[in-house]
Specification:
InterPro entries: Peripla_BP_I, SBP_2_dom. By secondary structure, the chain is an alpha/beta fold. The protein is 44% helix and 19% strand.
């Protein structure tokens, strides 16, 4: 009873602040708080909450693998009667029952970054993520611009058939074929293992000395690809485009190993997710799918705010 009373007291204090008539808590729950990517989501959410009259809570498990902990966080948010939830589900199936409970309680939910499984349809109002097909096409256009419209380009992918991979790599290959005479080498699948990507890239470079360009389609793959280019003495000689924006990839952009890297709008996921939920609380209609965009980070813009907001 004691802790419940304290919670009620805390809510009472929060509600006493100047706020709109429907003020409440918007709970942002992510895959883990121990990652710069998710801290960028928090920055975006914090920027957006100021205009809503609501309060913000930000939470996530200690690791992305702690799925049960994330389920508990959603259940706790429902139990304390939050006004809305922004959720990045770490598992597409395991989070469905918790989101259903939120839906039954009349709490609007925005899903960000990764989709819920088929069984979760109708339990949330909007899904916000990078349009991976658009990102793949952007990478292809940049590749053609820098590598020319013929010759060989290798595709270093991660896990065959994953939703993001189908869009990102599929649309990259389609765009290359539609807009150029480039010959695609691969795709090769690293299973999201940096060491595997390094070995695969080393082999591809050795087998194709005339390679014009190479695309690394997610963070561990692009890091392995960059390291292989350096070890082979090919850094800066092959047009290399990565995906994601951790410190290794930023260093590769700065030293010219990568011509650019495509970074998902993590800040925008938090910002637009909170705005969408605030609109839903206010009874407004929100698009069922919202593209949170992608930023092509190059040596030219790596210090600019648009890049700084998404790099991690």
């Amino acid at each position: 009873m004691h802790s419940k009373f304290k919670t009620l007291l805390a809510i009472g204090v929060v509600m006493a602040l100047p706020a709109t008539a429907m003020a409440g808590e918007i709970a942002v729950i992510v895959k883990t708080t121990n990652s710069n990517f998710w801290q960028n989501v928090n920055k975006g959410a914090t920027a957006a909450i100021k205009d809503t009259g609501h309060t913000l809570s930000f939470d996530g498990p200690a690791a992305e693998s702690a799925v049960a902990d994330e389920v508990n966080l959603v259940d706790n948010a429902v139990n304390r009667g939050v006004a809305g939830i922004v959720l990045a589900p770490s598992d597409p199936e395991a989070l469905i029952p918790a989101v259903k409970r939120a839906s039954e309680a009349g709490i609007p939910v925005a899903i960000i970054d990764s989709s819920l499984g088929e069984g979760g349809k109708g339990t949330y109002q909007t899904f916000l993520a990078t349009d991976n097909c658009t990102a793949g096409k952007l990478a292809a256009d940049k590749m053609i611009e820098l590598a020319g419209s013929e010759g060989k380009v290798a595709v270093m992918s991660y896990v065959a058939g994953v939703g993001s991979e189908i869009g990102r790599v599929g649309c990259f290959v389609e765009q290359i074929k539609a807009k150029s005479k480039i010959e695609i080498v691969g795709p090769y699948y690293s299973q999201s293992q940096m060491a595997t990507a390094l070995n695969q890239t080393t082999d591809v470079l050795a087998a194709n000395p005339d390679l014009k360009g190479i695309f690394g389609a997610n963070e561990p793959t692009a890091v392995g690809m960059g390291r292989a280019l350096k070890q082979a003495g090919k850094a800066g000689q092959v047009v290399a485009i990565g995906f994601d924006g951790n410190e290794d990839l930023q260093a590769f952009v700065k030293d010219g190993t990568l011509s650019g890297t495509l970074v998902q709008g993590s800040f925008q996921m938090g910002e637009l997710g909170v705005k969408a939920v605030a609109d839903l609380i206010a009874g407004k209609t929100v698009a069922p799918q919202i593209d949170t965009g992608v930023v092509l980070v190059t040596k030219d813009n790596i210090e600019a705010p648009e890049a700084k907001n998404v790099l991690y």
